[in-house]
Amino acid sequence: MKYRRLGKTNLHVSVVGIGTWQYGGEWGKDFTQEEVDQILDKAQETGINFIDTAECYGDHLSERFIGDYLSRRKREDWIVATKFGHHFHGYLERSRHWSPDEVLQQLDDSLKSLNTEYIDLYQAHSCSDEEFNNDELWTMLDKQVQAGKIRHLGVSLKTNNESYQTERATEYNVKALQVVYNRLDKAPEATIFPSAEKQDLGILARVPLASGFLSGKYKPGASFGKNDVRSRNEDAEIQQTLRLVEEIAKTEVPESVPMAAWALAWCLQHPAVTTVIPGCKNPDQVVANAKAADLVSTDHPQNI
User: Read out DSSP for 65-122?
Assistant: First the structure.
């Protein structure tokens, strides 16, 4: 495993992390605590030390799985990121909650769910510019940093067009951005990455396997169940994506390299990117994803 400094923080995160939206039950599978334990134990074996979750992956369900795990392990071995701004109300149903009092309650609920006294990276989750541009909210969050409940603040951008929030990140003491970035979506390279590099912000690349399409598991003709978030897309769009991925596999991926590892390493070669956070449904996927670190050059500005 390789490690990189997360922006202006003192956190050294593994270049491959663990995304945990799946644990909330919206990816066609319900997890047990034992399954989560096995995934995270395997992650630690491979050198992974970074977990990303959110209050609305289930009603703090993903956080509770992680918290139960952390209660039986060394908390200091892990860098834990979570998010705020929503309440979960069922499959793909959320309500928005952005007042300082509501966010403070979310923070306390997340700390309780995660069985921890502090959150390493606390991220505004897909906020609008109006929700972001709230001095009272950021003043409250800064007080929680001073109180030790939060180590660092971040923003998980809703889209790759959030130039307003990106440009003002340092003004609000934000030290990391989370963006959608993968071989099928290079949009952050245009404006977000240059601004992040200028401000020395960490970049968390979410959906690095394009919701599993770049994992190499799915071929044209594949379909997804009704309780899988990928089923939101029209079948014609899904099939078009699968055909494009098939072409990429033939023309860009070396024959001896698994496509998932190649796709993650593709993200990590950009000098702005600190870590990728693919989801994992089992320990074997953890091992496969961790192999991306072997394909990453050590010549990177954030490498430790």
Answer: HHHHHHTTS-GGG-EEEEEESEEEEETTEEEE--SHHHHHHHHHHHHHHTT-S-EEEE
